[in-house]
């Protein structure tokens, strides 16, 4: 899968979504793969969860919340591919990248 590096991608609201800093992306994926409390926060309020990791909330828009967050193993399986997406395209440009059973499918759908 080829992902173009951009300064940001448009969300469904038409606003730009800034890519995540690689350190923030790593921490996000670490916590989604291991920490049940963080996973609950992310499901309830993705913006707050990512902000807690140091991402500026004014640079991205949450398009949709996650109904069923992907299992820890699913995040671990596509970690590098998801990280590439997060640091090049933005955190909420494909809101269903965190949905159970859809992570890899949505990353590859371009």
Question: Could you describe the 3D structure shown?
Answer:
The protein is mainly alpha-helical and 110 residues long. It has one domain (21-108). It has helices spanning 22-34, 36-44, 46-52, 72-77, 79-88, 103-108, and strands at 9-10, 16-17. It is globular.
Query: How are strands sequenced across the largest beta sheet?
Result: 1-2
Molecular shape? globular
Compute the CA-based radius of gyration: 12 Å
Give the overall average pLDDT.
Answer: 74
**Content of β-strand:** under 5%
Largest sheet: 2 strands, antiparallel
Question: Unreliable stretches, pLDDT < 50, 5 or more residues?
Answer: 1-15
Number of separate domains: 1
Q: In angstroms, what separates the terminal alpha carbons?
A: 9 Å
Class based on secondary structure composition and strand pairing? mainly alpha
Number of strands: 2
List keywords for this structure.
two-stranded antiparallel ribbon, 2 strands, 4% strand, disordered N terminus, Mod_pep_NH_fam
Write the layout of secondary structure elements.
Layout: E1 9-10, E2 16-17, H1 22-34, H2 36-44, H3 46-52, H4 72-77, H5 79-88, H6 103-108
Antiparallel strand pairs: 1-2
How would you summarize what this structure contains?
The chain has 110 residues and is mostly helical. 46% of the residues lie in helices and 4% in strands. The chain has a two-stranded antiparallel ribbon with strand order 1-2.
